Every structure is written in structure tokens, then in C-alpha cells.
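Exercise 7.
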Amino acid sequence: QVQLVESGGGLVQAGGSLRLSCAVSGRTLSRCTMGWFRQAPGKEREFVAASSRSGGSPYYTDSVKGRFNISRDNAKNTVYLQMNSLKPEDTAVYYCAVDTAVYGGGYRAEREPEYDYWGLGTQVTVSS
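Solution. The predicted structure, written as C-alpha cells, is:
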């Protein structure tokens, strides 16, 4: 059984930082694309960042480029999302997800249906 457990969310002032963690069990992280998504109140869930299994460059949605960084520790089967220069519009529930498919180099897995397993989410609130 695959389980993903996010942690690290909380309340932070605008301009501050948070680091989210996602611990994965039941699946070898090194063989999966790992993604972070978020859902703000009243909005659909959206792609934030992903780290591919092939070890290629991570990719991000435009609104977080230069502020967020996704990384993984395959030995710990954990993926991280470092969030800097946070803005009130970053307020959302953040979800990590596992994509077990094998893609060609350079493919960007940004769509929810591409991901097979999901965590329950962690709340991030950025105050102005």
C-alpha cells in the first residue's frame, strides 16, 4: 500500500519561508516522478512543481519560479518543497503526489490524472 504523508505547513507572514516534506512508503521514490500541487479556497487544484524520475531538471509553474525549489532524498524516500518569498496568494492546501509512469526525457507531468497516489495535504497560510 502506497502512503504519502505531507508535513511542514503552517502560518507564515508574507516574505517568509516554509519547507514542506512528503514521506512516501510503499513505493521506491527513485523510480517515480514526484509532484506538488495546491488548492486555494474556491479554486481548482493546480500544479506547482515536479521532480522527474529520470533525474532531469525540476520544473515549476510560472507563479513560483525563482521562489520555490523541489528536491528529493531518495535514501529517505522523501520529497521536499522549499518555499521562499511567500505571498498571500500562495495560501492553499499543498499536496504531494506520485506518478509511476515512464516518460521520455523532457516530459513535464503537470496534470492531475497523471499522478497515481496522493497525500492528504498540508495547509499553508500566508498572511499579508
